[in-house]
């Protein structure tokens, strides 16, 4: 005869009651485990979705900020003015070959003029009037001396806010000293007074603010 369980309902066998309790505990354990698994899966999915959305939106935000900043920094009026100033600098150098530089021919690299234009825009970006407020002193370094070529007021009707001194260098190394006479024009009526000169692509620029006592800014380009 099966043993009776010491429970309020003593009519049930101990084994039946024990099996029923174990079954309930197992069922609840499975339910809890499923709920835990479902919760972890939902959190993982939400986290992946959040990361994807955040990464995508962040990328768009960075791109939009970069584009807006580049659009903001680009000034077509300033670019046009800079191009005109560079042309004026090149013309002044060409005219100086017969006076200040005293050479038969002056060769000016395109790369030099491009770098000068970039530096002018860079140094004028923080000025209240931009490039219009620049007073440019143009010089050419020869041996141990610095020959002044021209002074250019970008906007003669405006009081200058800053002064730029461009110190250009002559090409003195490499193959140039041996072939420079080949670029000098020859005339049957007059002898060559001086050989041709070629400017180096490197230069020095000195910036001085005219409305404050800040120190000079010297850049080697």
From TrEMBL:
The answer to whether keyword Cytoplasm applies is yes
Q: One MF term from GO for this chain?
A: 14-3-3 protein binding
Q: Which InterPro entries match?
A: RTP801-like, RTP801-like_C_sf
Instruction: Name the keywords, alphabetized.
Output: Apoptosis, Cytoplasm, Mitochondrion
Subcellular location per the Swiss-Prot or TrEMBL entry: Cytoplasm; Mitochondrion
Could you tell me which Pfam families the record lists for this protein?
RTP801_C
Its principal location?
cytoplasm
Query: Gene3D superfamilies under this entry?
Result: RTP801-like
Gene Ontology terms: cellular component = mitochondrion
An example GO BP is: apoptotic process
Statement: the UniProt record of this protein carries the keyword Mitochondrion = yes
The entry's family comment says: Belongs to the DDIT4 family.
Q: What is this protein called?
A: DNA damage-inducible transcript 4 protein
What is the organism lineage in this UniProt record?
Answer: Eukaryota, Metazoa, Chordata, Craniata, Vertebrata
């Amino acid at each position: 005869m099966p043993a009776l369980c010491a429970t309020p309902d003593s009519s049930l066998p101990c084994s039946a009651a024990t099996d029923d309790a174990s079954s309930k505990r197992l069922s609840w354990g499975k339910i809890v485990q499923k709920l835990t698994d479902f919760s972890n899966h939902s959190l993982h999915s939400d986290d992946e979705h959040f990361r994807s959305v955040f990464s995508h939106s962040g990328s768009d935000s960075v791109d939009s900020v970069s584009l807006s900043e580049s659009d903001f920094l680009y000034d077509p009026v300033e670019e046009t003015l800079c191009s005109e100033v560079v042309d004026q600098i090149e013309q002044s150098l060409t005219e100086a070959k017969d006076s200040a530089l005293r050479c038969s021919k002056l060769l000016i690299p395109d790369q030099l003029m491009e770098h000068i234009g970039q530096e002018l825009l860079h140094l004028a970006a923080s000025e209240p009037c931009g490039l219009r407020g620049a007073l440019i002193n143009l010089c050419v370094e020869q041996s141990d001396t610095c020959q002044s070529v021209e002074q250019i007021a970008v906007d003669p009707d405006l009081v200058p806010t800053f002064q730029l001194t461009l110190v250009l260098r002559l090409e003195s190394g490499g193959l140039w000293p041996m072939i420079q006479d080949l670029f000098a024009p020859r005339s049957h009526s007059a002898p060559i007074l001086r050989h041709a000169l070629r400017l180096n692509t490197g230069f020095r620029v000195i910036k001085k603010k005219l409305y404050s006592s800040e120190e000079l800014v010297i850049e080697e380009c």
